[in-house]
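Continuing the batch. This is chain 6 of the set; chains 1 through 5 are on the previous pages. Same settings as before, nothing changed between runs. Recording input and output for traceability.
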Amino acid sequence: MPGVKIADSHDKIRWDDFVISHEDAGPYHLFAWKEAVESAYGHRSYYLITEDQGGGVQGVLPLIHVKLPFLKGTLVSLPFCDYGGILALSEEAKEILFQAAIELAAKLKARLEIRLKAPDPLFEGSQRLRVLSHKVRMVLDLPESSETLWNGFKSKLRSQIKRPQKDGLEFTLGSADLVDDFYCVFSANMRDLGSPVHSKAWIDAVVQSFSARAHIGVVYAASKPVASGILLVCNGMGSTPWASALSEYNRSSPNMLIYWGFLKYASDHGIKRFDFGRSTSDEGTYKFKEQWGAVPFPLYWYGDGFSSASGHEGTAGKIRPVIEKVWSRMPQKFADTLGPTVRKYITL
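Output for chain 6:
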């Protein structure tokens, strides 16, 4: 890969300096994502850098090779989140990194998948990559204070936020100290949804790798955690990759208090935009996020392994409801044990 090197731990500082300086970057571009993936799941990473003659960084492309034993893997930018992709100072640097990714995928005999939060002519013009754009990010611009944000909400929304507080629920913001309580809610919710859960080691690794950029919010009913979420911060953007609530407490709407807690913190700490994460247009989570004033931005996932123009799983999507039903009926302990073994290979 002429003109391209694979970053190692010695490149972490300059990698992150470049990411933080780039307007299109998000928290998943940071070196912390690489560290978390390698630590928790052991997937091989290829973080590509192209430089000028003086050694200055001109572009970066984070790639993770997710591969089941004995099967063809996927070289993806990035797994377990909404987007990754190339950050570059010029079209030339972008093209160099794209070509390097194609060559690397061929060398590894892997499929290539690059997830972007906006369309890109370079990828649109590729003969080998198809694009999926049926999912959206829901993003809210934030004012300079939570008071201004609160006053801008409709009365119905303010009443929904007050409801869990009237029921005695309380929001707490922390970090590594709240991982256990976060995971207690997260794992139960994922089982109920019929979906394999990430390992607790993964959550630990994300929080530790992102350090001061990672925050955990937990809503308690008395001393019991009933809703939880994670907030990652980078470049004035706050992103929530995971948020959950226990279904038996839906009547008190603890999920409203989780998001208000994050939005309040973000507004009061200089965060300009809040990313609620991925949704399908007009479905339940989309409408939930839309009520806060969030605006949809289509995601553009380019790949050579997509089996349909409208779905990431292809024919597997047809049996997904059956799998979800079976999974949701598993005993919690069994789901917690088996889930992480499966989840580490699901790039969504």
